[in-house]
Amino acid sequence: MPFEFKKVLEHGTTNPIVARLSLQILEILKQCNASKDIQDKVGELYVNSLQKKLLRCWEIEERFKKEFAAAVGKYKPPAAANAPVEVPQIPRLEEECHNFLYEAKNFIRDLLQVVNHLYGTTFGEASEFSRAKKGSQSLLEFAEKTFGADDGKTKMLKEAVPSIEELIAMRNAVEHPEGLSGKLVIANFADCIHPGGQAQPRLPN
Known about the structure:
mainly alpha; globular
C-alpha cells in the first residue's frame, strides 16, 4: 500500500504560530518530567487544536487589515457639498468578528486543558482563567499558590488577564445578547465628512 500524504495546514513553519505551537512545543515537552502519555496528550492539543484555532484568528485579522486598507484606498471624497458619497464597507465584518471571538474563546478553554494534563487540575470553562467557579480556584489563583506570585509563569498569566477577560466578555455577549456581558456592537465604517470634503473613516471599539 503506498504512503499517503495529506496537507493539513495552509501555513508552514515560517509562520511563528506554526513554529512555536508545533515543533518548538514538542521539543519542550521532551524536556519535561511528564509521562509519555501526558506528553502525547499535550502535544495533540497544541498541534491539532491550539495551533489551528490561533491560525484561524490570525487569518481573520490578516483579512481585516487588507479589506480595511482596500476600503480606505477606494474612498473618494464628495465632489461638492451635499453630493452623494459612497461610504467604505468591510464585507462580512460581523461574521468575521464572531468567528474570531469563537476561536479565541475556545483557544483559551483548550489552553486550560493543557494545564489539566500537566498539573491534574480540572478547569473546564475559559472564564476559569481568572474567575473561579464557586468552591474552586481560577488558573491565576492556582499559579500563585503553586508557583508563587513572583514566578515568571504567574506574572505572565496575570498580565494576560485583562485581554482574556475582554475576549471572553465579548464572546459571551454574542452568545447571550443583553445578558450579564451586555450586547456586542459591531459597526462597519462610520463616515465623518468634514467641510473640506475629506472623510475620516473610523471603526468604533
